[in-house]
Amino acid sequence: GGHRWRRVAAELAATGLPLATVTIGRDVRDVNGVIADRYGIGAAGAVLVRPDGHAAWRHADRASDPRSVVAAAVATALGRPPAPVEDAEDAPAAEDVG
What we know:
With 98 residues, the chain is of the alpha+beta class. The chain contains three helices and two strands; from the N terminus they run ααββα.
């Protein structure tokens, strides 16, 4: 799981935000199977980790609008006001996060 989180991170990175993704089990090995549990997330969750290694934000599972969720988390981590939330009819269609 997590392809939507990765896509959102790539979209934000394309705007010049220094943001990279790391996927448990794909980019980093979890030999003991404890990484997600220690971060308090499920298989479809996400964590925003600051450059100093501290977790700035986490979302335990999938989100209906991951772009808004991640954009708000990044803005908060950077000390910026979050961008206005789009109207529900303008928001992207929900996809399965599998």
